[in-house]
Amino acid sequence: MGSLIPGDGGQFTEYLWDVLMAMQPPKRVGLIRKLKEPPAAPKFDIAWYGPQWKIFLKALRDEDCSYWAEIYEKAFTNNFQLDKGEYKRRQEVPEEIKNLGPAAVGHYLERLKDQLTVSRLNEARILILGDKGVGKTTLARKLIDPNANLPDENESTKGVDTTLWDFPGDELRARIWDFAGHVVTHAAHQFFLSERCLYVLVYDGRTDNPERLKYWLNHMKNHGGNSEAVLVVNLKDPHQPQLPINTLQEQYHLRKVFWLNLEKDNNKLEEVRSYIHTYVREHPTWKKTVIGDKDYAVKQELEQLFGPRGNKNGEELISKEQFERIVQKHQAPKPEQLLSMLHSLGVSFWYPDLKGYDTLILNPEWITDGLYAIINWLANKKEHCILSDNFPQAFADQFGEKAMRFPKDKHAFLYDLILQYELAYERDLVERELLFPHLLQEDQPKFLPQLDAIDSLLARFRCNSPLPTHIVSRFIVRHHRQIKNYRKQPQVWRYGVVLEGNKGNTALVRVVNWQLEISVKGPKPKELFVPIMDTLKDIFEQYKAQDSQLEYKIFENRWFDSEVIRELEATQSPLVHQADPSGKLLPLPSERFGLPSGLHVSGNMTFFQGDAQYHDASTKIETNVTFNFQECNVGLQTDLGDLITQLKEVGAELEAKELATAQQKLAEAKEIQDQEKAKIKMGKGLYRFLNKVNEEGTKLNKLVKGLNDGVSIAQDIAQQYNQIADWTGLPQVPKAFLKGEAGG
Ligand SMILES: Nc1nc2c(ncn2[C@@H]2O[C@H](COP(=O)(O)OP(=O)(O)OP(=O)(O)O)[C@@H](O)[C@H]2O)c(=O)[nH]1
Ligand SMILES: [Mg+2]
């Protein structure tokens, strides 16, 4: 692929390509593809592009991308001389701005060009996450002042507290966001987790639940872009928990782990402080974020209004008019653009999509306090609905006299923000009542429709860790108009919902363990199934860390990935149809589930009917395409047997016994067809054993390394175990099992 501008290593063209792809309408892409891959010789000759060149430039300008139009034009008139300074700035556009799309990137760069000098933003963000009571607030306070007192026991954080950490002698400072650990607040946290932050996870050393670490690391992975994490294990007592640090470091950007008692280990605390300080100071991210001097002056004035050094005694909100006056005073260009830029950089908050509100928020805590006040007020009362008329009561109960911070004319803004964040839906449009699905009761209703019949459409998203509640509650919000009533009760709970489609179709969508299951039944199930799947795919797209695998159930207990279905149909492998009592053929799976984009299957696909062929063909599919649990199980048992014998030979009786127990469970699971049941039968014994083998310095690790072939047997075991774990949904052991020791 050629680059339009020599010397940029193709990145500029790549980037431009993204710009163009992001442009609507898509029909322009065909035209632009010509520009992307021109023939080698005439690519530097503008004439080669003919009249399309003008159309292309106009298209860019129409899409508010005049910056990019100019770059392209200049490239030709400049004879492809690269403006190195400008190029460098393009490379350093902050991720938050890039995420807004090419127009915003152009605006950001244009603003820099239009102003005399630039200033660094110099404010890093540190986000502290972890379960309730683990010591997040303790850490937040001790980072700023190591001698700070411990918080009182009843001082639990309500939503988010933010404080500034000044580094003496450094231009830089950090804003610490200390999040609440209480589970009712988690759904709202994601709106304040951003990219280019340092995440600090706190874990209570007295607990033994490493899954919780994964939960928080997934939060970071979902919303934090390339941000990295530091883990602080708070050793409130001398117990040292076993944590799969290596595994986590392989899967997440986990940079460093500290083990300390936050109350007593002052030396260790100093290490944490100095590590974070150095990290923030030396990390290129914050050094590089620059804005023009006029914009900087506006930002400074906003901060002054809010209170010197953000001490929260000043204005929390100002009107757009006030803002525009400040912009005028400092002769900064285009206030609208500046508003959205400051929003994306986290300086102040502005929601142009919420029409009719002209409020600019200077204190981020105003929004978080407002949102969490409503959520906590409901949670305390064990309720999940609030009328907009009850907002004043909620603020009064939560803040007492300070409820004045939320005057009545701002309630509608918060109400609409909750809707925009999809934290709730409007249960009653006239009365203006909000329902928060993540506050509903946890248990499912006693009676649920039976939707796993032979002709139901069944699909599931399998995840590698617990699903954040917001995935399903967001789904409920989007489909709330279809919620089905049973005996006048809406069938919806915290982890699921029953929906009713147009033509007597019914759907059940719910979380079961680590997966989200969808089943739809009715005369035309596809009509309900397809929109449900579209919504879910869209939502899962935003939670990439969940690493979800989407599968469809074609036969009894046979789940297939859509790609496999496609392959099977395309290669005309014998596909089985359910033995329909009427003898009627069901449509192809892709057809039945309404999988996107048609398949090119010719007419001579073989179909089997009846039991005999059913088994015949399904075995064939299983060995060809899907994972064969029984075979892998037997192989794994043999390898375990080898290791057990060797361990016994060196006198490691206890270890051998532990492994024999795992082997026994595996043998018992062999005949089980259902993944979930196999998982339960196997348990986590083998997983724990393997982790111990893998952890440098443990007795098992040394033992295995001392055996003949010990390492390679262990690696084989790990590899087979991972295949089974993948199938059952058990946790994986690291891919690079026993690093650096391959071959023994
Ligand atoms: N003895 C002792 N107590 C501690 C230590 N760290 C925290 N605590 C106490 O544990 C309780 C909870 O600590 P916080 O820092 O408030 O916990 P948190 O993670 O902010 O909790 P939430 O805000 O509710 O999510 C407080 O009463 C602290 O004083 C420690 O190292 N030793
Ligand atoms: Mg706290």
Task: Walk me through the structure.
It is a single chain. 45% of the residues lie in helices and 15% in strands. Mean pLDDT is 82; it is low at 1-12, 18-34, 36-42, 598-626 and 740-744. The chain is of the alpha+beta class and 744 residues long. It folds into five domains: 11-91, no CATH class; 123-287, Rossmann fold; 365-419; 457-619, TATA-Binding Protein, CATH 3.30.310; 629-728. It binds guanosine-5'-triphosphate and magnesium ion. Magnesium ion binds next to helix 8. Guanosine-5'-triphosphate (GTP) is lined by residues 130, 132-138, 150-153, 155-157, 180-182, 234, 236, 261-263.
Within CATH, the superfamily of the largest domain carries the name P-loop containing nucleotide triphosphate hydrolases
At CATH level 2, the architecture of the largest domain is 3-Layer(aba) Sandwich
Specify the structural class. alpha+beta
Q: What is CATH's topology name of the largest domain?
A: Rossmann fold
The separation of the N and C termini measures: 44 Å
Total strands: the figure is 24
In order across it, which strands form the biggest sheet?
A: 17-18-19-20-14-21-22
Name the overall outline: globular
Count of separate DSSP helical elements: 30
CATH class of the largest domain: Alpha Beta
Residue-averaged pLDDT: 82
Major beta-sheet overview: 7 strands, antiparallel
Ranges where pLDDT stays below 50 over 5 or more residues in a row are: 1-12, 18-34, 36-42, 598-626, 740-744
Number of domains: 5
